[in-house]
Amino acid sequence: MTDQPDTHRESSEPAAAPLPRTAPPDPRSPTGVPEPPTAPDARRQSGERLTTAQGLRVDDTDHSLTAGPRGPVLLEDHHLREKITHFDHERIPERVVHARGAGAHGTFRAYGNAASVTKAAFLAEAEAETDVFVRFSTVLGSRGSADTVRDVRGFATKFYTSQGTFDLVGNNFPVFFIQDAVKFPDIIHAGKPHPDREIPQAQSAHDTFWDFISSHTESTHMAMWAMSDRGIPRSYRTMEGFGVHTFRLEAADGTTSLVKFHWKPALGVHSLVWEEAQIAQGADADFHRRDLADAIDAGAFPQWELGLQVMPDTPDETFEGIDLLDPTKIVPEELCPVQRVGIMTLHANPENYFAETEQVAFHVDHLVPGIHVTNDPLMQGRLFSYLDTQLSRLGGPNFAQLPINRPHAPVNDMLRDGMHQTAVHDGIVAYKPNALDDDRPTASPDDGFVTVATPVEGTKGRHHPVSFTDHFRQARLFWLSMTPVEQAHVAQAYAFELGKCASPRVQENMLASLARVDADLASRVATGLGLPVPAGDVPEGVEPSPALSQVPTEPGRVEGRVVGVLVADGADLGAVAALRSALGEEGVVVRVVAPHGGEVASGDASEPVDRTLLTTRSVEYDAVVIADGTAGTPLAADGRTHVLLQEAYRHGKAIAAVGDGTEVLRAAGVATEAPGVHVLDAGSDDAARVLRHDLGMHRAWARLEALAGL
C-alpha cells in the first residue's frame, strides 16, 4: 500500500488570536449593544453549495462510490448512505413510494425447465409449488390517491420458498428513470407534489418532474414508457411485470448466467385510454384494487407466466452491445427470447388489508441459493434502502416475524430482542462458535447461500461508465415499436404533461430531448404546446421491437372481462340470460344495467339489476350491449345512457345493439357502421361470439385510429 502524506503535522503558521469572551460596544447601535451578526436563518437552508447534513461540501451527487467503473458500490460512501437514509425516513408511517397498493395471495408452479440455469429449488424442480403474495402499487401518490393515474406500477412478489423467502421487487416497466441509486431521492422528490402547495397529487404533469427528466437525459427511455399506454394499465391483471435489473443465476454445477425476469399476463397486456383513466379517477378511485378483488371473488383467478431472458455471464457483462448493468436499457425480445419457466395464479384476497397488504415488507436482498445480485449501481443502492425503509416503517428490526412476512422455511437466526420481538428464543447462547450448545445452530456451507465469487478490482471514485451515456437509442427503439395509434397516445401524453408545466424553459429542454428521439414526435408535441420545433440528431440504425407493442395480432383470453347489458322493463330478458350463460362459460362477467334498482321484468321473466344509470359509468365495462326492447323506454331517453355509449365508443370498446336497441344507439349519436360496433337482429345469438372476439382484441383499434385521424 502506498504511503499517504501526513496531513496532521503541526502548522508553522502563527496561531489565530483567541476570540473575545464578549463583543465590544457597537457605535452604530443606538443602545450600544452590538447588532447580531448576519447569519443564515436556522430554519432555512441558504448555502450556495450542495453539502451533507453536517455542512460537508459534496463533489458529486449523481454517482455512487464504486470499486472501479463497473465494480460494486462501497459501504463507505457516506453521502449515498446519508442521502438514502434520510429519504427512507421521510414519511411516517406510510411508504415513501408505492404507498397505494393492492395485494393477493397465490401459488407459483415451476415448469422445471429452469434447472439448467439455477439451483433455486422453486424454479428448478418441475411441478414445485410455492406460496406467493403479490403487491401491486402506484409509485408517486399517497394512500388516498387514485388507482388510475399515469404512473409506474409496482409489481412485487414474495416467494415463500422452502429455501427461504425470495422477493422479486419489480415494476410494470422493464427500465427505470435513473442509472444510479444515489439519484433515487432526487427523481422521487421531483415527481412528488410541489412542496409549497402539496399539489399535484399522484401526477407527473408538473414542472419539477419534467425539469428533472430534461436535465437527466438518462430518463428519456423510461419517460417514453410512462407516456405510453403502459402508464395507465387497464387492470393489474393485464399488466406485465419486470425485475428491471440484471440478476446472476447459478446452476447446480456452478455455472452462471445473466438474466432478466419477466411476468407475462395470461390475459395479455391491456391499458386504459387517457379519457377513460380520468373518468375512472372520479367515478371509482379504487378502480384497480376493486377489479383485482372482484376477479378473484368471481373465480377468474389472474395468472402470469414467469419468464427469463438468459444471457452469457461474460466478463464485460454486456449482450449484443447492450450494457446489462444499465437499468435504463432493455434487451429486445427479438435478440433474446423470453423463456417461460413457471406460472403464478392469484386465488385469494387478503383477509385484512393492514395486516397483509400494508405490512408486507419486500427487500431486494431477500435471495435464495441460485439467485444473486449484480453490480448494477441502482440495484446496489436498493440493497441498502429497502431494509432501512422497513426498519422505519414497521417500527424495528423484527418485521420478518409479522405473519405476512414470516418465511415458510425453518428459522433460527440468533437475532435477539429489539422492538416488536415476538419469537421466543430458548437457551443462553446467541453466538458462534459456542461450546455451551454444541455449536448449534449449524452453518450450511453445502446448501446455504454462498455469494458467487466474482472478481472485484478498481480505483475508488464516483465513476460514470461510458456505456451508460447512450440515452436516446432505446427511447427511439420504443417509439418505433409502437403502432400509429399508440404513437398518437404517446405524443398526446407528452403534450398534456408538458402543457401543465409553467416554465417555458422546462418545455423547451424536454422538446430538445424528444428531438433526439424522433423528429415527428418532437413536432407533434411542439405543435401541441405552440412552440417551435427543435432540431436534433437521432440515433441511426435502430430497429423496432414488435414485442413492445400492446396491440395484439389475434384474440386472447377473456376471463374476468366485464360486459354491461343495458335493459329496461319489457326488454328481451331471455336473450340477456342466454348471453350471461354463454359468456359465463368463458369466465366473462355480465352485469345488468337498468334505470332503476331491484329487478327488471318482462312478462314472466325477470333479471336482478347489478347497476343503475346513477351508480355506473362506462369505465366499468370492457364491452356494452343494448338489449332488444329498450327503445321507447326511460333508459332510451336518459342522457346518462347516451353518455355511457358515447364514452364506450370513444374508448374503442366493443358495442352490440340487438333489435330495436339500434335506435338507442343512433339516438346517442354512435356510428353504427364503425369498427367494433355490431348491429344484430332481434333474437340473434351472435352477441356472445362477436363480443368474445372483440374482448380478446382488447379494443377496436381501427376505430381508435380513425378517431385519432390516422
TrEMBL record:
Protein keywords: Heme, Hydrogen peroxide, Iron, Metal-binding, Oxidoreductase, Peroxidase
One Pfam family here: Catalase_C
Cofactor(s), names only, from the UniProt record: heme
Keyword Transmembrane helix tagged: no
Catalase core domain sequence ranges: 51-440
Known function: Decomposes hydrogen peroxide into water and oxygen; serves to protect cells from the toxic effects of hydrogen peroxide.
Catalysed reactions listed for this entry: 2 H2O2 = O2 + 2 H2O
Enzyme Commission identifier(s): 1.11.1.6
Protein's name in the database: Catalase
InterPro entries from the UniProt entry: Catalase (IPR018028), Catalase_AS (IPR024708), Catalase_clade2 (IPR024712), Catalase_clade2_helical (IPR043156), Catalase_core (IPR011614), Catalase_haem_BS (IPR002226), Catalase_immune_responsive (IPR010582), Catalase_large_C (IPR041399)
Stretches with biased composition (Pro residues): 21-39
Basic and acidic residues composition bias: residue spans: 1-12
Positions of region (Disordered): 1-72
Family: Belongs to the catalase family. HPII subfamily.
Source species of the chain: Isoptericola hypogeus
Keyword Iron (UniProt): yes
Gene, per the UniProt record: catB
Cited SMART domains: Catalase (SM01060)
